[in-house]
Amino acid sequence: MGCVCGKESIRVGERRFYVRSRLGEGGFSYVDLIEDVQTHKLFALKRITNHSRQDEEIALKEVEIMRMLTHPNVIPLEETETLAIGRYSKTVDLVSEVLIVMPFYRKGSLEDRMQSLAKSSKCMKEEDLWQFFLGICKGLQAMHNLSPPYAHRDVKPANVMIADDETPVLMDLGSATKARVQISNHSEALALQDLAAERCSMLYRAPELFNVENHVSIDERTDIWSLGCVLYAMAFLESPFESAYQHGDSIALAAGGGNIKFPSNFTYSKSVEEMILWLMTVNLLERPFIGQIIEGVETLRDKTENRV
User: Of 55, 154, 219, 223, which one is the catalytic site residue?
Assistant: First the structure.
């Protein structure tokens, strides 16, 4: 890293970038706005600092999953590099930084869009709701169709970016993992439960990840519950459990109870409510797979467009 003409610069792969500003920070990384020195095109740079070999392996797994996926509804990998800052020994862990260059989305995230709509007391048109949601579903399908299937495990409005042409783009694959897990004992159950608490946002977390049972099978349908929460948030501009969270109630109990309340001033067709309830089926084994959902959403989109 260096400084050119007063600007911090950084080389990632074979390309050099200027660092322009900080876009955001998370629990495991932070993101900067960067500019390609030659083309002047803007990108987002995710920097993941690792304090152990295990941390580095997790970060590199995100890079590996991004490389596996080429889909218009999943964020692409532009460049990547791993910078070693320390060393391994019996007493000192390596401190490294994994750099991931991704597109920069000027329109922000679905969460940003929801906040803007809420401020102006507006909501999405139903035909736009289905079209946008369909794109999210197709991005998720690309992950679920990998061999073996992968689950995103943190599907939420903040992790859906909006491209210039309004295409939704699923991002932040840092929580993604092989979807199908067989829990054989109490130790494995606790390990998955702790991992979910660390990596999966509470307001969008599937009930089976709050209290993981012994001798159960977990699969990619953990994401389907989150999809239902996202569709609810798109329609009503908040998580279905926002009220419980604000009152300090248990989100785990609220999710496990499956009691989804809809606003009294419901302006959408009954199909929106029915789709949300279908996706947010409490029993994982009764929840639909992503292919079934896409078929249903395409049918509803076409019906809605024909009514307009």
Answer: 154
